[in-house]
Amino acid sequence: MKKYAIIVAGGTGKRMGESLPKQFLKLGGTPILIHTLQAFNIADPEIELIITLPKEEIQFWDELNVWHQNYITHKVVAGGETRFHSVKNALEHVDEGLVAIHDGVRPFVSAEIIHESFSLANKKQAVITAVKMKDSVRQLTEDGKSKNIDRSTLRMVQTPQTFSVDLLKSAYNTEFKNHFTDDASVVEAYGKDVSLIEGDYRNIKITTPEDLVIAEALLANK
After folding, report:
1. Is the pLDDT of residue 211 over 90?
2. Three-class secondary structure assignment of 95-107
3. What's the whole-model pTM score?
4. E strands, the chain, in order
5. Shortest CA distance to 170 belongs to which of 183, 187, 195?
């Protein structure tokens, strides 16, 4: 079964307080996005890698690859207005098989999670990675108050989110809606249930300066 990974890298540096897009910030001297590519390549060199980037950043990414001697084979696709549109653009370059969608700024995804994600998607068609909530959670109500939610019933969603190509292409053959926050939400709107696999608290998404500090510590202890 052919396997693909679409690595979505359309972020900006706003929450990071940087002018440089967060996927290009250095982690241990190497851009975060290269670390993410390496994670998938190490897990399985046969996975076909596709990166989505804003069109205006593609030349800079090419220069970074030369500078950091990144020779991992991958295709670059111009992203769209939203994550939804970026994934939809990338799916045009995917044939039959399985496809994982992954955040470009989650460089610590493990080989075990990648393997399990593809393995279960081969059976269930739609699989997302998630971890249990650590903190107590409250829900805001319409009257301006809040109520406690049983955290044992909740999960924090991560990536990769892995699907059969046929299913994901069919699900994305729809108009964009604001509640499409990830690929699972698009697939659920299409009418397909998703299965969960256990994620990893180290599989962080680097979006703030605090995240980058944590990421440096994780890299030092890798």
Report:
1. yes
2. CCCEEEEEECCCC
3. 0.94
4. 3-8, 26-27, 30-31, 48-53, 75-78, 98-103, 126-132, 137-140, 146-149, 155-164, 195-198
5. 187
